Amino acid sequence: MQHVVIVIHLMVVLGLIGVVLLQRSEGGGLGIGGGGGSGFMTSRGTGNLLTKTTAGLAAVFFVTSLILSILAGYNRKPASIVPGAPTSSVPSVPGAPPPLNSGGGGLLNQLQGPAAPAAPSGPQVPQSR
Q1: At residue 74, what are phi and psi to the nearest 5 degrees?
Q2: DSSP state of 27
Q3: Are 34 and 86 in contact (CB under 8 A)?
Q4: Are 58 and 17 in contact (CB under 8 A)?
């Protein structure tokens, strides 16, 4: 499904680029095919046709972009960037502290090893020597 939408999206992008480049620019720009009445349509009719085609292709471009973003996030699962680290199956609430006794502990707890240094029992006063 995603491959089909990508192919449609790329064809729309190429068509949109071509239609935009065919339009007559106000400031001179490319100005290809804009002069004279020898074309297959008058300049006013060509402008309306190109404007409507551009609007239609732009709408299809936005729709395919939204579909691709929805398809990209559809099967997304949480993963760890650290190899071998356990992934949490509990959904996290924004702003909530992490669980204290989660069994395996965090990466920092694993790196510290089994014995953590004991916390001081009272305030430490600097002593001069």
Answers
A1: -70, -45
A2: T
A3: no
A4: no
Reported as a single tens digit per residue, the pLDDT across 35-83 is 554 455 555 566 688 889 999 999 999 999 999 999 988 878 777 778 7
Token duo for residue 11: 């064809």
Sequence-distant (6+) residues with CB within 8 A of 92 are: 98
Contacts of 19 (CB under 8 A, 6+ apart): 50, 53, 54, 57
Is the pTM higher than 0.90?
no
Torsion 110-111-117-118 (CA) sign = negative
- How many whole angstroms separate alpha carbon 41 and alpha carbon 8? 29
Tokens of 56: 């239609």
